[in-house]
Write a structure and sequence with these properties.
seven-stranded mixed sheet; binds nicotinamide-adenine-dinucleotide; about 40% helix; six-stranded mixed sheet
Length: about 475
C-alpha cells in the first residue's frame, strides 16, 4: 500500500516532509501505508499561499465568477464519484453502497445547496430604504478548515464550498484517518483551474492541526470534530481572537410519544442510530419512549437490531461495517462495560466482536434498555452502534430528559399530534429538530448549541459563517 504524502500548496503538488503516522485498514487490521504529515515550514507555506491568493483578488471576485469556478469544481468531482466512494469505503470501512449513496450522495447535495445559495447571494444591500446606509458581507480572508473522518467528503465540502463561495482562501487539514479522500478532492480543484493558492491541502495529525490554529495571520478556523478538540481549538484561537465555527459532538434525543406510528418510529430510530456504524454526530442515540408503549418499543428495537448485520465494506448491501479504528473500538467497549457496571439492561448485543468475525474493528449493534439520566451512557457520546432507551411519563418529563445533556445538536420527535410536535420542537435545546422522520431540507442550517458547538454550516448560513459584516453610511453603491 502506497503512502499518503501528496499535498497541494499554491497550485503545486509537493511531498509532505514531516513525520509518518501508520494507517490501518479498519476491516482487516492490516497496514494501509503511512500518512506523512506536513513539516512546520510546509504549514506556514500553505497559509502564506492562501494569504497571497486572497490579496491577489479572490475575495474581490464577483459572485458570478466564483460560482463558475465552483461549478467547474463540482463537475470535476462528479467525474471522481466512484473513486471517492471506493476510497471512503477503504479508508473508514463504510460499506460501499452506503459510501456511494450516503457519504458521496450527501456531499453532492450540500454542494448543490451551496451553489443555489451563491446564485442568490447579495453581499451589498441597503440597510433601509435609504441607499446611503449599506450593509456589506465581506470574506474574512484566510480560512483554516479542520475536518473529521466520519463523513470524510461531506464534512470537507460543507466547508470548502462555503468558504470559496464566501470569498475566502483556504487551507484544508483533513483527518489523518481519511486524507486520501481529500487528496482526490484536491485533484478536482486542480482540474477545475482555480487560481493558485485559493485552495491548499496539507496532511497531518492533531499536532499539525494545532500548529495551524496557532498562526496569528489566519482569520477563521472552521472545525468539525470532537468536543475535546473543539475546546483546545477555541482556547488557542482566543489568543489572537481568530474567529471559529465549531461543529462538535452530540447525544441526540429521539422522543417517541405513545400516539406515534411505533413500528415505523422504532425501525427508523434504530437505523438512524446504527447508520455509519453509529459514527455520526447527529445520530439519534437516546430513544426516549412514553411508558405506555415502552416495552413494545424495546421489543421492536431488538427486532430491528437483529436485522442489522455486519459485513466487509467492499461487499454490496445494506449492512454495517467496522468502526474506524482500534481506538474507536476500544472506546465503545469501555462504554459497554460502564453501562453494565451502572446497571443498564442489555436487551440486545453487548461487548466484543460479533460471532464469526475474527479481524477488523467490528462492534456488535447493541440496545441498552432502562438507561436512566444518571448513567454515563445517557450523557456521553459513545460514537458506535449503541442505542440507549429510557421511559418517560409526561411531555414535560420527555423535554426535561431530552434537554438533560451537555450537548445540543439534533432532536427527533415522533407523534401524531401536530400541536404537541410544535410545542416540543420549540422547547428542545438543540440546533436542529426533525419530526416524524422528515429529513432536513437542502440548505437548512446544520449545527448545534452547548457542547455541540457554535455556528452553522450549509446553504446560505454556511457561506455567511465565512464572512464579516460591514456597515457603510453616507455613500451609495457606485459599481
Ligand atoms: P477529532 O476531534 O479527534 O479530530 C478532528 C480533526 O481535528 C482531525 O483532523 C484531527 O487531526 C484534528 N485535531 C486533533 N487535535 C487537534 C488539535 N489539538 N488542534 C487542531 N486540530 C486537531 O474528531 P474525530 O474523531 O476525527 O471525529 C469524531 C467527532 O467529530 C465526534 O465527536 C463527532 O460527533 C464529531 N462530528 C461533529 C459533526 C458536526 O457537524 N457537529 C460532524 C461530524 C463529526
Amino acid at each position: 500500500m502506497t503512502n499518503c504524502d501528496q499535498m497541494y500548496i499554491a497550485g503545486q503538488w509537493q511531498t509532505a516532509r514531516g513525520q509518518a503516522v501508520a494507517l490501518i485498514n479498519p476491516a482487516t487490521e492490516q497496514s494501509a501505508g503511512d500518512l506523512i504529515c506536513a513539516s512546520p515550514a510546509q504549514v506556514t507555506e500553505a497559509v502564506d499561499a492562501a494569504r497571497a491568493a486572497f490579496d491577489a483578488g479572490w475575495g474581490q471576485l464577483d459572485t458570478l465568477s466564483r460560482a463558475e469556478y465552483l461549478r467547474a469544481f463540482v463537475a470535476a468531482l462528479e467525474e471522481r464519484r466512484e473513486e471517492l466512494a471506493q476510497c471512503i469505503s477503504a479508508e473508514i470501512g463504510t460499506p460501499i453502497d452506503f459510501a456511494r449513496a450516503g457519504q458521496v450522495g450527501a456531499a453532492f447535495a450540500h454542494l448543490e445547496a451551496t451553489l443555489t445559495a451563491l446564485d442568490h447571494l447579495v453581499n451589498d444591500r441597503p440597510l433601509t430604504q435609504f441607499d446611503a446606509h449599506r450593509i456589506r458581507y465581506e470574506p474574512l480572508g484566510v480560512a483554516v478548515l479542520i475536518t473529521p473522518w466520519n463523513w470524510p467528503l461531506n464534512q470537507v465540502v460543507l466547508k470548502v464550498g462555503a468558504a470559496l463561495a464566501a470569498g475566502c482562501c483556504v487551507v484544508l487539514k483533513p483527518s489523518e484517518l481519511s486524507s486520501r479522500t481529500a487528496v482526490i478532492l484536491a485533484k478536482a480543484i486542480e482540474a477545475a483551474g482555480l487560481p493558485k493558492g485559493v485552495f491548499n491541502l496539507i496532511l497531518g495529525d492533531g499536532a499539525v492541526g494545532a500548529a495551524l490554529v496557532e498562526i496569528p495571520q489566519i482569520d477563521i478556523v472552521s472545525f468539525t470534530g470532537s468536543t475535546a478538540t473543539g475546546r483546545e481549538i477555541a482556547k488557542q484561537a482566543a489568543q489572537h481572537f481568530t474567529r471559529t465555527t465549531l461543529e462538535l459532538g452530540g447525544k441526540s434525543p429521539n422522543i417517541l410519544f405513545a400516539d406515534c406510528d411505533l413500528p415505523t418510529a422504532v425501525r427508523q430510530g434504530v437505523a438512524h442510530c446504527f447508520r455509519n456504524s453509529g459514527q455520526s454526530c447527529n445520530a439519534a442515540t437516546r430513544m426516549l419512549v412514553q411508558r405506555d408503549v415502552y416495552d413494545d418499543a424495546v421489543a421492536l428495537a431488538v427486532e430491528a437490531a437483529e436485522q442489522t448485520y455486519l459485513d466487509a465494506p467492499d461487499h454490496p448491501g445494506g449492512h454495517q461495517g467496522p468502526l474506524v479504528s482500534q481506538a474507536q473500538y476500544e472506546r465503545v467497549q469501555r462504554y459497554l462495560q460502564i453501562a453494565k457496571d451502572e446497571g443498564a439492561r442489555f436487551a440486545y448485543g453487548g461487548a466484543g466482536r460479533p460471532d464469526g468475525i475474527e479481524a477488523g474493528f467490528y462492534a456488535r449493534p447493541t440496545v441498552l434498555a432502562d438507561v436512566t439520566p444518571e448513567m454515563t451512557v445517557f450523557k456521553d457520546e459513545i460514537f458506535g452502534p449503541v442505542l440507549c432507551m429510557t421511559p418517560f411519563d409526561t411531555e414535560d418529563e420527555a423535554i426535561a430528559f431530552a434537554n438533560d445533556s451537555p450537548y445540543g445538536l439534533a432532536g427527533y420527535i415522533q407523534t401524531a399530534d401536530e400541536a404537541r410536535a410544535d410545542r416540543v420542537a420549540q422547547r428542545l435545546r438543540v440546533g436542529m429538530v426533525q419530526v416524524n422522520g422528515k429529513s432536513r431540507e437542502g440548505g437548512a442550517p446544520f449545527g448545534g448549541m452547548g457542547q455541540s458547538g457554535s455556528g452553522r454550516e450549509a446553504g446560505l448560513w454556511g457561506i455567511r459563517a465565512f464572512q464579516d459584516i460591514k456597515s457603510i453610511s453616507g455613500v451609495a453603491r457606485t459599481n
